[in-house]
Amino acid sequence: MLLALLLTWILEGKPRYTTMQDGQTVPYISDVGADKLKPLFIAMGAFVVVTLDISFLAERWLRHTGKLFRNTSTFQKVLSILSIISAIVGAAGLILLSIFDTKHHPRMHNVFLALFIGGYIFSAVFICWEYQRLGVHFREHSILRTSFYVKLVFILLEVALAIAFGVLNRKKMWNNAAIVEWVIALVYTFYVLSFFMDFIPAATPAGHHAGGPQIEEAMSEAEDGGRAGSGQYLTTGHGRYYENGAANGHNNGYTNGYGNMYANTQRQPPPRRF
User: How many CB atoms lie within 10 A of CB 100?
Assistant: First the structure.
């Protein structure tokens, strides 16, 4: 979508749209999207954010079923749910800002723009936090650590760029602000693409990825009283083995072995003397 909007503006000879400010030569994304490409702007924007939100839901389901690294605490699940809610808010912001364009609804457009940027930044914060906690429990799997750092870089970049965008707008440096807006959108695109790597473990054979259900069940057992389970195992397992196996074997050995040998010896007649 970004490429289509940018190429349209360039191929048309870099026209100056009616929504652009005095002295502005670089259009905002919304300036191009509010013109004749508005249907494309709405359709592609909705497609991108709906697809991303579906990937959030799919990741939650795969993590719940154990095809991705399972959450090891309720807190991680809460973070995952908060990231989904924030992503839905951000998606609504992008769809609404494309509908309420800057030409006809400038004030509402700016409100929805802030909702879009804020929603996805908070979503990234929550999911980044979740991945950090997962990485603590699954230290041997570098893909979680990589994903965490990718999302952390996105958060830092987008927050810095959003602040710069607001400052440049306030100072009426329209061209610089427009360039920053295009960069924000480009960084967001790479953030969306980064989620492909999060689904890699789900594509590996069962049991060959991040621990699967086995490690998670072991962790849950340890957290919920695994020591008691181990004690019970020792009592009911090894204890029963030693009581029934060793005791019976030892006793039966003496009874059936040495006892029978002794009895048979007693029954033998005395040797003849010649």
Answer: 20
Chain position carrying tokens 């693409």? 193
If we measure between CA atoms, which residue out of 56, 111, 51 comes closest to residue 85? Answer: 56
Q: Are 197 and 146 in contact (CB under 8 A)?
A: yes
Question: Looking at the predicted structure, is the pLDDT value of residue 243 above 50?
Answer: no
The yes-or-no verdict on residue 163 having pLDDT over 70 is yes
Tokens of residue 54, six digits: 């579906």
Q: How far apart are alpha carbons 15 and 32 in whole angstroms?
A: 10
Nearest Cα to Cα of residue 56 among 198, 188, 154, 204: 198
Task: Collapse the DSSP code of 273 into the 3-class scheme (helix H, G, I; strand E, B; otherwise coil) and give the result.
Answer: coil
pLDDT at 242 over 70: no
DSSP secondary structure code for residue 26 in this structure: S
Higher-confidence position of 90 and 255: 90
Which amino acid type is present at position 264?
N
How far does Cα 133 stand from its chain's mean position?
Answer: 11
For the record, the structure tokens of 88 come out as 């839905």
